[in-house]
Amino acid sequence: MATKRRPRLTEVPPVEHVAEDAPVFVISIAAELAGMHPQTLRQYDRVGLVTPGRTAGGGRRYSARDVALLRMVQRLSQDEGINLAGIKRIIDLENQVDALRSRIDELLVEMAEMQMRATAAEAAVHASYRREIVPFKSMSIVPWKDFR
């Protein structure tokens, strides 16, 4: 009698109510989703390529983001021929780029807020004029003529 084998998972099942970075997959499921052996996942954890969440008992729990990262590691290693140290450097640089992009977004928001405050302050100054200062918009240069 043949045992019925569970079909191989090819992609992370969509779970709408769980965050992408929620550690929900045990190592065997994460390994199957990533197309790797569980021991490979343990090695990648030791090297620092992926950092799964941990249960109170110390068991690894992988998120959908971790599984995507594992697939990228596998692609870079097998298809591109990059060693694990190179892959770790690539991951670190991508994380740094992501952090810098987030900082740029924060600075753009801050800059827009500062611009709004400056515009409001300028409007308040202009509103405080009591016509003591007359705005003069056009400056023309008129040649001087000696009419003697």
Short description:
With 148 residues, the protein is mainly alpha-helical. It has four helices and three strands.
Defining key terms:
three-stranded antiparallel β-sheet; Multidrug-efflux Transporter Regulator, Chain: A, Domain 2; mainly alpha; MerR_fam; 2 domains; MerR family transcriptional regulator; 148 residues; DNA-binding transcription factor activity; elongated; DNA binding; MerR-type_HTH_dom; 53% helix; 4 helices
Structure report:
The chain is mainly alpha-helical and about 150 residues long. The chain has 2 domains: about 10-80, Multidrug-efflux Transporter Regulator, Chain: A, Domain 2; about 85-130. The chain is built from 4 helices and 3 strands; from the N terminus they run E-H-H-E-E-H-H. The chain has helices at about 25-35, 40-45, 65-80, 85-130; strands at about 25, 55, 60. The protein has a 3-stranded antiparallel sheet. The longest helix is centred in the C-terminal third of the chain and has 45 residues, at about 85-130. InterPro entries: DNA-bd_dom_put_sf, MerR-type_HTH_dom, MerR_fam. This is MerR family transcriptional regulator. It comes from Epidermidibacterium keratini. Keywords: Coiled coil, DNA-binding. GO terms for molecular function: DNA binding; DNA-binding transcription factor activity.
Using the 3D structure, state the CATH architecture of the largest domain. Orthogonal Bundle
The top-level CATH class of the largest domain is Mainly Alpha
The end-to-end span amounts to 125 Å
Q: Count the strands?
A: 3
What is the general shape? elongated
Number of domains: 2
Helix-strand topology string: EHHEEHH
Average the pLDDT over all residues and give the rounded result.
84
β-sheet strand percentage? under 5%
Count of helix runs: 4
Radius of gyration: 31 Å
* Main β-sheet, spatial strand arrangement: 1-3-2
